[in-house]
Each structure stands twice: as C-alpha cells, then as structure tokens.
Amino acid sequence: MKKRVRVIERDDVVVKFAGDSGDGIQLTGAQFSDTSAFIGNDLATFPDYPAEIRAPQGTVAGVSGFQVRIGHKEIQSPGDQADVLVAMNPAALKANMNWVKPGATIIVDISSFDSRHYKRAEYVEDPLGDGSLDEYNVVRAPITEMTRDVVKRFGLDLKTADRTKNQFVAGILFWLFNRDLKIGENFLRDRFRNNPKLVEANIEVLRAGYNYAETVEAIESTYRVKPAEKGPGYYRNINGNTAIAWGLLAAAEKSGCKLYLGSYPITPASEILQELVKTKNLGTIAFQAEDEIAGVCSAIGASFAGCLGVSTTSGPGLSLKSEGIGLAVITELPLVVVDVQRGGPSTGLPTKTEQSDLLQALYGRHGESPCVVLASSTPANCFDFAYEAARLAIEHMTPVILLSDGYLANGSELWHIPEISELPKIKVPRIKDNDPSFKPYNRDPETLSRFWAVPGQEGLRHHIGGLEKADVTGEISYDPFNHEIMTLLRRDKLDKVVYYIPRQEVIGQPEGDLLVIGWGGTFGALYTAVQEMQEEGHSISLVQLNYINPLPYNIPDILGRFKNIVVCELNLGQLATYLRSKLPHFHYLQFNKVQGLPFLISELKHKFEEILGFSGS
Amino acid sequence: MENYSKTTAKDFKMDNDVRWCPGCGCHAVLSAMQKVLPETGIKKENIVFVSGIGCSSRFPYYINTYGFHGLHGRGAAIATGIKLANPGLSVWLVTGDGDSMAIGGNHFIHLLRRNLDINILLINNKIYGLTKGQFSPTTPKGSITKTSPSGTIASPFLPGELAMGAQGNFFARVVDNDLEMMQKVFIAAASHKGTSLVEVLQNCVIFNDAVHSEITSKELRDENQIYLEHGKSMLFGKNKEKGLIQDDSRLKAVTIGQNGIKKEDILIHNAVDREDTKHYMLVRMMLPENPIAMGVIRSCEAYTYEDTYYQQIEASRNKSTVGNVNDLFMSGNIFKLENHNGN
Ligand code: SF4
After folding, report:
1. N or C: which end of chain A has fewer CB within 10 A?
2. Residue B69: its chain A contacts at CB < 8 A?
3. Is A417 close to B329, i.e. CB distance below 8 A?
4. Which residue has the higher pLDDT, A434 or A157?
C-alpha cells in the first residue's frame, strides 16, 4: 500500500539545482522552467555558473547552480532561499546550505556522497550524519547508481550514461510538483531530435526518477502551484539575451532597416550574437568580427549604408568600443551598443553580475560625447528596451547604449508575445533621392537630428567622418565658434530625446517617507522588497529607471515628494553620483553591493527598515 | 537611362582645396583615381571611399563620391560593414602604412582573409606624415626618425608578404610618379572580385623625401623596376634586355645574351595561379640584387565573403518556415492563456 502524500498548494516555490558544471544542471533547470511556463506558472530564474568551463570536479569552486521560482502570482525575482534543493554532490550541498529555507526539501545524490567527494568538498564531518540536516527533509536518492542501471541496455558509454542522470532529477521533480510526465518527454524529444537513442534513454531515466519518487516514500509532501494570473494571449519563457536579440529583430522589421550586428564573443553577451546568426532567414547580417573595435566600426559602416547597426558586448568590450561610439556621435549615425554588464574592472568576474558600467556608458568617451543610455530591468523587458534603443537610435540619429547585465542575460521569465502591429512605429529620417535641400548636417527642427542619406542614393553624395564638421554643410571645419555650436547642437539633440520617452512611473504612493531608486536588473529584488514592505504598512515607493540619459522629465518632481531617497545599486554608487551631478539639491542615501550577486530581498528590507527607523516614521 | 560612359575625371573632382603639401605623391594618386573611375562604368552614387587617419586618409574628401573618413586604423572595419550591408556598392579603402600596418594591422589582415570585394590603396611613404615624422612599420631598418634618433631596430613589414600570409588573393605595386601604371593597375584592382591590395610607393616630400627614389627616379627606374603582366615574360631594363630566371629557390636577374641566357629562359608571369610561390619571391625582391616588382603580382579568383553570406541568407530563407519575426516568436515552446485564466 502506498502512503498517502500530502499535496500542498503554494503561491510560489523556489527550486535550486546544484552540481558539477558537467552534471547538466543548467539543462535540468531550463527544462523545469520550460515545463513550468508550459503549464502556465509565472517564473523567474537565476543561473549561476563558474567562470571555468570545467572547474575541478567535486569542488565548491566548480559548483554550477540554477535557481528558479515559479508561482501563481506575479513573480519578479528568483527568491532569496530555496524550498527545494537538489545537490548532486557534497560540494553542491556545502555551497548552498546558506540559501535554503528552514524545513526545505533537500534531494541529494547519495551515490556521490562518499569519502572521496567529502574530501574534495573539504567537509571534515559527514554532513548527512552529523545532525546538521535534522531540520530538513532530506531525500537520499541513489541518482547516479539507478541511472546507470536504467541505461545499461542502451549500451551508452559511461560519460554519456551519466549525463542522463539529470533526467532522474527531473523525474523526481515532476512527481514532486504533480506534473504530467508527457510534457517532460516532449521536451526531450525536441531537445535530442537528431538522436533517437538518446531520446529513449533520457525518457527511461525520467520515468525511473518519477517512479522512484512515488515508491520510495521519502518525500512527505508534494507541491501544486496553480497557473499564474496573467492576461490572455501567447506566452513563452525567455531569457534576457534572447529577448535583446528578438527586440532588435522586431525593430529592424518594423523600421524596414536591415539588421546588421557586428560583434565579438564575450561573456555574458555572446548568446545575442549566437541567436542572431541563426536568423539569416530573416535577412539578418550578423558578423563575428576580429575584435570589439571592428565589431562596432563595421556596425557604424553598415549604419552609414542604411542598416540598423548594432554591436553587443560586455564591460571590457565597451571600453574598447568607446572610440567607435565617439565616431557615431560625431557622424550622427544610428547605432545600438548593448552592454551585458559583468563584474569589473578588467576581466573581473566574467560570469557574475554587476552594475559596473553606468558611468562608462555615460561618460567613457573622448570629448563632449553624449549618448542615449537605457537599461533593461527584467529578462522579458530586454525585448522592449532593445526595441526602444533601436527606435531612439534611428529616430534621433544617435548612438544608444543599452545596459543589461549577466543576471538578466541568463535569467528567464514568462514573456507575453507582443503583436508586431502594436509595437511603436519607428520613423526613419531618410531623405529622398536628389532632394535639393539636402545638406549632410541640416537638421530636423523638432528633434535636431540630421537626415540619413545612404550610399547608392542619387544626388545625395556627401562625406562624413571623425573630424569636426561645419554646421549644415558638413565640410571639415576647425573654426572655434563652429566647434562650440556643433558641441551644443549634439548636446541639445540628446536633450530633446526627453520629449520622445515616457514619464517615469512610481511603484507605490507618489509621496511618502522613503523612495527607493534603482536602475536596470535589480528591479526584481527591489520590487519584491518594496512591495512586501508596502504590504507591511510602510510608506515606501520604488522608482526603477530604464531611461538614464536623458532622465524622464518628471524625475525631479517625484524626488521632491519623499522624505528620504535611497539609491540601491550593485556597484559603489554610480547612479547616485550621476543623480548628484544632475539633481544636486536632493540628498541621496546609498545601498551598495559588489559581490557579483544580485540583491537579497532580506538585506534590502533590512536596510529600508533601518532608514525608516532612523527617520522616525 | 543616363549614359555613364560620358562621365569624365572632372565629374569626380571636388571644388574644395586639396590640402596635401605641394609635391606630395598623393596628388598624383588622386588624379589617377579620378581618371580611372569613369572607366569603371560605375555610377558615382554607387561608389564609396573609406579611409582611416593619416595624410593619405584625407583622400575621400577630394573625390566626388560617397565618403567616410573613419578612425585611425579602422577604415577596413568600416568598409567591411558598408560592403556587407550593401554588396552592390563599389568600396575603396584608402589607407597608409601607419594606418594599416600598425594600428589597423588586425583589421587589415582579416579583411584580406575574408576576401570581401573591397579595393585597398595602401599609400606607403614609410613614415608618419600627419604626426610629423615618426617611423612606421615599413620604415627601413636603421632609419633615423623623430622617434628613432639612433636608428630603427625592427625589420620593416613588406605589405605584399603580409597580404599573402593573410590569404590575400590580389596584390599589386605601383609608384606614385607613373600615372599610366597607376591607372592600369587601379582598373585591374577595381575589376578583380575580392579584396585587392594595391601598394602605392608614395613620396612624402616633407618627412621622408626621396625614400623611394632609387626605384622611382628617371635615371634608375628602368633598371630598378620590373613591371609584371600576366602571361608575359618578366623583362626589364631600358631595352627589355634583362629578365628574371629561377635559380634554385631564388629569382635572379640576368641579361639576355650573357652567360648563354636566351629569351626563352626568362620566366613568364602567372598572376592567377594561387599556388605559385613565385608571388612571394617577387614581392620580396630587393635592390640591389633584383629589381623591385611592379604591376599586378597576384590576382587569383576566390569566393567573396559577401557572396557566400548572401547565399547563406538565400538558402536559409528557402529552407525556413519562419518568414518574419512573428513566426519566430510563435515557434517552439509557446502556450496560450485564455481569458478565464486566473479566475
Ligand atoms: S606630410 Fe608628406 S605625406 Fe603628408 S601631405 Fe605632406 S608630403 Fe604628403
């Protein structure tokens, strides 16, 4: 007789997968997320992997992790701590013990909990025997051993056989979350569609995991998370890098400009290039250049020739591109530069997130060289801001830097697939052949942007370049007064962009005791912390900036309505510095973290409570 | 339709002042180019001149086509973007020895390797002119310059050798005081499909005057230059009485009639054979042993990057069921939530 298992209905559950980077952790995480999305859960994910491709096996340094939070309500952050931890070896357990909730379910692969692995993980005592896990529901599953048994008949080599063990874990989770195994089987059929033997082996293992969980009676309760309350329409699970690639594609199609990407591989931005090289069927030109500089310069050349020129990179690459971006500023050509930020300076922490490049994006160029600077704030809105970056670049004939980060790039969430017809129009400032009024630096009086005449067009031949240009005619000019006029025009052109971007929204009351200001990828954590505190009755609101240069016009008005302002960033205060220079009459408190990790909701709340306590409210 | 055969050199002149120093070799290069462009039959609107930074990189401002004066060393990358964006354009890159052999070396070799259909004029005066007289990567070893008061230490690059090492398919060399030679070779470069590199030995009257004079001077040029043409004997000298033969692994200059050398012994130039190692030897020939090779030394057919890229686009268009971004978004793992959801 089977024991009756309790089914717990939950609004949200956090699951963390951890193991060696070769254990297929990212795949298991992605599969779990996709099936969650498929049954309609809202979700947010956070993959966390070591910089080395194959770090020493079994060591804490080599632990790869994937955290996913699924929910029935709106999910904006992958959560601080896990309800379910899957640890494929002792190192994975050790690395994650601080990040599980009291009473959590911990599934360990008992096959790899031996003295050899303990030593590698630098455990002095057996964690499964020393009582340290008494407070948790520990499931000791012989994952490796049973997997090998199951796949024996397929005659796979040991390495390939062991690769399938992530499906054993998946099977356990399907049971734990009361899910239909068919969804998982279909995922595998799609994933390994070129190798029927692997499909079969993986499906067998998946089923074995499921049956194991059902029969072993080690798990006391299972979870059910109802589908999310989302508006009707089509959805899919999307990560930030894919969303950026797709936003650019949408902007290209909508504007009628061919998309040209000139990029050089760099973590964590390479996936954008990898995604776009797959879209040749849409006419995309995605060019892997010999270096970062060639990437951006070729994009500028393509833009001169009428394409939507884009270059994608991460912090060190942005440094290399700064001269090129300056060229796009003075030639006044559309250019989108996407910077998927990572820990710095220098090579820094390639796989870890940090809001490292705001000041670089704003000021890191020679001369008076203003750019539009945007920041996306969730994996899904990477789509919107990539689209927006392209729109502003084209309509205002200017380089636009879009800041994403490693957390958004690899994290994923549900994305409501938009109707292409409903995306904002993009007005392309092209000029007709033989227009007698054409002068290279004639400007649209509204936007102050020049017009886009493209080689091949008759009667519009002209020269542009990096030397200062005479106003209107575009001839080379060393005239001191002309230089000042052009410098001011470039500044004013950028300032005009403010009339073409939305006003800033405040999450919460429009006035109160504490205004939290964040930008970019910290949105999930800040939103969750602020919302929880609002529910607890605090007078606290959030402004999450997506438009940083120019700032939305209503920012000063918002800031004036709060007693305290705290700027929260994963750096030492770059936005705070910027705000102090732009709006010096406000007092800014700061909360900063530079550990290569996202904010924890708990540490944010702690800080906000402290401020509210001190301010006596 | 307009009759383009009617365009003349005048159509390609600008009415601005050309700012090179009087006597600078660049003037002649510009005028050769202005004479050549009408002969290519390409519409002015479809021609783009791109450059980097340096004296020679001012070139685009003086020619009445589209022009892009880029960044130091980056002209090759800018030109690559233009050509890939619109392969229908005729793209010329004008660059110098500092621009392409030093700061832009990486872009230069990769442009040749990819073989985009771009024509490069590498205007080589073996010195930095615009920054006033520092040595460049092609400055002869031991030269005293502003930044080498005791003589340069490193061996200079030979652009042609570098180009072939980078898988280049077209290399030619000309001198700036031979208008006819420049015109012939520029036409050959323009009609070659793929990256064509023309090294122009140009005289900087201010900072490196007469650096090429042993090759270019009226008195010495017949003896010290050999003008190569595909399919013709490698002859030189005032009365074409000298020629090249292969002697072991080297090319050797000989005089017909001396030491039993007959006209039939002289090598015939084959510019189109990609395996011909003589292209290397020709590029490396040095005075005083051998004359300096001029004309089209190498001109081999090969697929261009942009042709292959656009063929891949065509192929994936024909194969794919995804024809627009909406198809893409709706492909793969998607699901639908209905109105009543969440109630
Ligand atoms: S400095 Fe030399 S290369 Fe430059 S313009 Fe004068 S002569 Fe020509």
Report:
1. N
2. 463-467
3. yes
4. A434
Residue of chain B with shortest Cα separation from A31: B333
Taken in order B183, B188, B192, B195, is the CA torsion positive or negative? negative
What amino acid occupies position A87?
Answer: A
Task: Please state the φ and ψ torsions of residue A134, each to the nearest 5 degrees.
Answer: -60, -30
Spacing, Cα B62 to ligand 1 middle (Å): 15
Q: Which of B68, B316, B336 sits opposite A301 (nearest CB)?
A: B68
Each residue of A60-91: pLDDT tens digit? 888 999 999 998 888 888 988 999 999 999 99
Cα B125 to ligand 1 centre (Å): 9
Atom nearest to B19 CA in ligand 1: 5
Selecting from A38, A229, A420 the residue whose C-beta is nearest the C-beta of B333 gives: A38
Chain B environment of A295 (Cβ under 8 Å): 77
Same domain, A203 and A261: no
Burial pattern A318-333, b for ≥16 Cβ within 10 A else e, equals bbbbbbbbbbbbbbbb
Q: Is residue A436 part of a domain?
A: no
Instruction: Assess contact for A277 and A450: CB atoms under 8 A.
Output: no
Same-domain status, A415 and A553: no
Report d(CA A402, CA A385) in Å as an integer: 7
Task: Tell me which CATH code domain B9-220 carries.
Answer: 3.40.50.970
Cα of B24 to ligand 1 centre, how many Å? 5
Q: Are strands A547-549 and A562-569 parallel, antiparallel or unpaired?
A: unpaired
Instruction: Report strand pairing: B90-96 vs B242-247.
Output: unpaired
Cα of B332 vs its chain's centroid, Å: 47
Q: Are residues A33 and A175 in the same domain?
A: yes
Question: Is pLDDT above 60 for A47?
Answer: yes
**B24 pocket-lining for ligand 1 (C-beta < 6 Å):** yes
Query: Into how many domains does chain A fold?
Result: 3
Average pLDDT along chain B? 94
A247-280 exposure pattern, b = at least 16 Cβ within 10 A, e = fewer: bbbbbbbbbebbbbbbbbbbbbbbbbbbbbbbbb
**Ligand 1 within 6 A of CB of B207:** yes
